[in-house]
Design a protein that fits this description.
- The chain has a domain of 208 residues: FAD/NAD(P)-binding domain (3-Layer(bba) Sandwich), CATH 3.50.50.60.
- It is α/β, with parallel strands linked by helices and 445 residues long.
- Helix content is 30%, strand content 22%.
- The protein contains eleven helices and 21 strands.
- The structure holds flavin-adenine dinucleotide (FAD).
- The site of flavin-adenine dinucleotide has 43 residues, from α3, β14, β19 and α10.
Length: 445
């Protein structure tokens, strides 16, 4: 692939997280040839966390990470900000597995919390909890039963009735909500930079503005970039929804675009008008899920909420082609429906990001390639902030040949799940599925 063809699919991050993080001096681009022990492609949570955990476990390793643009350019720097428990596609009926999945994702949340507490960087992290709001009697009854079940497994999750929800959030039509008090929100761009600083202090060789154009497999993998080549016995693909552009994992996931909008930082009066207090974020109960967080800088970011808020583009494009304004308008409408008090607030940012979705919604961590030396973590759906941190630990252990700590997880070394046919079948399937689920409640857990 030519540099311009690849970069046309890795568009620039236009989110408020990027603007709120402020400028940062870029690392140099790769020039010349280098041999290392592990190459990582991708400067989001997965790549940076893998680098950090690899070097913490084995400081003598030579690790090089290349990022096509700047750290946090992908989903990690343009998401909904909520640092959440749970892994999509893994059920919660079996007590031991439910506790384990909670514990694994809680580990990711605690890693973010610890990084934020250590400083010196301000990650914009807060830990004020999240709601999943229910708007129908049957959905609320199911969700309450679910809270009772997981609480019986020892997990601290609470049910709030309509009045208790109203005390935290002015969500129109809320009958009740699950409340997870141990979740938070974070600025992903700052989190990426903090992970990079920690890894660089341990010896990471970091290159920005360095797109991987071609991978040559072998006992020594070669990664070709515009002005240099990296060689190593092991490669980590931390390229999420962009992986198929390099010829990998294309049948395992679908790159789905999610449109988002953000308000300006709210004044206390504006916050009171939308009834937002003691809370970091929320989601609703629809299949085409709406999600929102209040940033540490005081903005409300909001995404999803209808078919028009999401898109799969024919050909697996990862940059949104054409005019995204209809998507952003649909997101804004849904924001105003959910929080009527937000209607007068100006929208300062409109942006779009690509999620990697597997058919089972389950993520996949594993190894591929003719020499079984290309490691990956993909398919986190909208739960990649906490999972991306632990994902780095999982991949670091897979790279080091020590998968045992994670062997009980159904998404580690378990294959990438159901194969997804290529276009045009994929595109047609997406249209049919979304037409059927456009305004329907989410499937039960
Ligand atoms: C709009 C949106 C909202 C979301 N909301 C939430 C949320 O509220 N909570 C939550 O937990 N999760 C959320 N997610 C999911 C979460 O952000 C992702 O799962 C997570 O960031 C994935 O991290 P990653 O490092 O695997 O991928 P990415 O952050 O996408 O990183 C991949 C990186 O690889 C680089 N790259 C790609 N190809 C190449 C190449 N050829 N050469 C070099 N570099 C390359 C890209 O530039 C990019 O920086 C959201 C995602 C989106 C898009």
């Amino acid at each position: 692939m030519t540099p311009s063809a690849l970069l046309s699919q890795i568009d620039l991050n236009r989110s408020p997280w990027w603007d709120d993080a402020g400028p940062a001096e870029p690392s140099p681009a790769l020039a010349g040839e280098r041999a290392v022990d592990v190459i990582i492609i991708g400067g989001g949570f997965t790549g940076l966390s893998t680098a950090w955990h690899l070097l913490r476990r084995q400081p003598s390793l030579g690790v090089a990470l290349i990022e096509a643009r700047r750290l946090g350019n992908g989903a990690s720097g343009r998401n909904g900000g909520q640092v959440l428990h749970w892994v999509n596609g893994v059920g919660t009926t079996e007590p031991e597995l439910t506790r384990r999945v909670y514990e694994v994702t809680d580990r990711g949340i605690r890693q973010v919390e610890a990084l934020a507490a250590e400083g010196p960087d301000d990650l914009g992290f807060t830990k004020g909890g999240a709601l999943e709001v229910f708007t129908s009697d049957s959905g609320a009854a199911d969700a309450k039963a679910w809270v009772d079940r997981v609480a019986s497994f020892g997990i601290d999750l609470r049910w709030l009735d309509g009045a208790e929800v109203a005390a935290r959030l002015g969500f129109k039509g809320a009958i009740g909500a699950t409340f997870d008090p141990h979740t938070g929100q974070v600025n992903g761009v700052r989190l990426c930079r903090a992970l990079a600083q920690r890894a660089e202090a341990l010896g990471l060789q970091l290159f920005e503005d360095t797109p991987a154009l071609r991978i040559v497999e072998g006992a020594q993998v070669e990664v070709h970039t515009p002005n240099g080549v990296l060689r190593a016995p092991k490669l980590v693909l931390a390229t999420n929804a962009y992986s198929h552009l390099l010829g990998y994992l294309g049948g395992a996931y679908v790159p789905v675009q999610s449109h988002m909008v953000s308000t300006a930082p709210l004044s206390p009066a504006e916050r009171a008008a939308i009834g937002w207090s003691q809370l970091d974020g929320f989601t609703d109960d629809m299949d085409r899920i709406a999600y929102s967080a209040r940033t540490a800088t005081g903005r409300v970011v909001f995404g999803g909420g209808s078919n028009a808020a999401y898109a799969y583009q024919h050909g697996g494009l990862t940059a949104f082609a054409g005019d995204p304004s209809a998507g952003h308008a649909a997101v804004t409408r849904r924001l105003h429906e959910c929080l009527p008090g937000a209607a007068p607030l100006p929208i300062t940012h409109r942006w779009t990001g690509a999620l990697g979705l597997t058919l089972s919604r389950r993520p996949a961590f594993g190894v591929t390639g003719s020499h079984q030396n290309i490691f990956y973590g993909i398919g986190y759906s909208g739960h990649g902030i906490a999972l991306g941190q632990v994902g780095g630990e999982i991949i670091a252990d897979l790279v080091r040949g020590e998968p045992e700590p994670w062997a009980d997880l159904p998404f580690v070394n378990a294959g990438a799940g159901l194969w997804i046919p290529p276009d045009p079948f994929r595109w047609v399937g997406y249209q049919v599925f979304t037409t059927l689920t456009g305004r329907s409640p989410r499937v039960k857990r």
